[in-house]
Amino acid sequence: MMLDYESVKDKPKTLRAMTSLDRSEFEELCNVFSEVGNEHTHQHDKDPAKGGRKPILKTIQDRLFFILFYLQVYRAANWQTDVNIVLFKWPCLNAIRFKLENSHER
User: Fold this and answer.
1) Which of 66, 70, 85, 101 minimizes the number of CB atoms within 10 Å of its CB?
2) Cα 81 to the chain's mean position, in Å?
């Protein structure tokens, strides 16, 4: 399964659970992230003849989304209900039941 910004940008609760940002905050941060990324890329241009692998995360939005998701999930080490629903396609009731059954482990 591929995580991408497009799949959650219209789901405010899920986007906030996965990144801790709402859509407007994400898009504002994405503009800055894009500018910095472009500056860095131009400073480190490589000879295209030398090859290199194509990026897996093709858009700036997906790159930023992955970084924020990683920080959110691994920092907290607590899978929130909305994240479980998106990642594992669990019906809402199963995600809530799982969270309740495992809440004693904290």
Assistant:
1) 101
2) 15
Ranges of each domain in the chain? 5-43+56-105
Confidence (pTM): 0.61
Q: What is the pLDDT of residues 18-69, one digit of tens each?
A: 999 999 999 999 999 888 877 766 655 666 666 667 778 889 999 999 999 8
DSSP string, the chain: ----GGGTTT-HHHHHHHHS--HHHHHHHHHHHHHHHHHHHHHT---GGG--PPPSS-SHHHHHHHHHHHHHHHHHT---HHHHHHHH---HHHHHHHHHHTGGG-
